[in-house]
Amino acid sequence: MAEDAVEHHEWETSPWPLVLSVGVLFLAPFAFSMYFVYDSLMLSFISLGIGVPLTLIAVIGWAKESIGGINLYTKEQGFGSGAMPFLIIAEAFIFIGFLVAYWVLRLTADSWPPEGSPHIGYTTPIIMTIILVSSSVTMHIAEHKLEHDNRSGFISFLIITIILGAIFLGLSASEWSHLLHSGFKTSTNIYGSAFYSITGFHASHVIVGLGMFIVALIPALSGSVSKTYVKSASMYWHFVDIIWFFVVSQVYFW
């Protein structure tokens, strides 16, 4: 009986968190540093060439471990829902760093936005906010459906959430395109650098969230899903939603 207890409490191990960390390191800090700091497009592409495959491989491998072969009615599996708050706290501090830097620039500037900055309207960010809040609501409903073993309801609201998130990204890309064509770039002034850095960083988190949802949707269509995984993805999505309120209020309306 003692041996069974020891076996039952063995640590779960996986190589994919380490692979993902290395992939993200090449994908973001290295690639951006090589381009913006060292002005080397070639080294930036090399970093992306290493980071993108590693990130995709890690996400696929980790997802297969989390969801593969799990019956729809499985209540709990793994430590995802317990570990996700730690990831959220770490990501929150990164956003805090961005926002504090923005506040310092904003409060020490003689005028804001600096000369050369275009007028950014309020209509698009308001619509984006409504859409993102709606996606949090639909994700909450999807999670509720799953808890009550309503497979069709879960899948339907998960798909709606994915669509809303994709619309949010489309609006963000459309606004970026409009601003870039009007001559507003990262090199225009410090506001341009801050605007694209903060909104782009948030958009990257939306992309990650949508990826997590797609990873949950594909096996759910065939009857396999981890409720723990869905709960973790839902927590992450709500975090992305909350962070957007800080981004939109500071970058767009202040």
List the helices and strands and how they pair.
Elements lengths: L1 H7 L7 H22 L3 H27 L12 H29 L14 H25 L3 H31 L8 H31 L6 H26 L2
Query: What is the mean pLDDT?
Result: 84
Oligomer: single chain
What's the architecture of the largest domain, going by CATH?
Up-down Bundle
User: How is the biggest beta sheet arranged?
Assistant: none
What does this 3D model show about the protein?
This protein is mostly helical. The chain folds into two domains: 1-67, Helix Hairpins (Orthogonal Bundle), CATH 1.10.287; 78-252, Up-down Bundle (Four Helix Bundle (Hemerythrin (Met), subunit A)). It is 78% helix and 0% strand. The chain is built from eight helices and no strands. It has helices spanning 2-8, 16-37, 41-67, 80-108, 123-147, 151-181, 190-220, 227-252. α7 (190-220) packs antiparallel against α8. The longest helix is centred in the middle third of the chain and has 31 residues, at 151-181. The termini are far apart.
Defining traits:
254 residues; mainly alpha; Helix Hairpins
Structure summary:
With 254 residues, the protein is mainly alpha-helical.
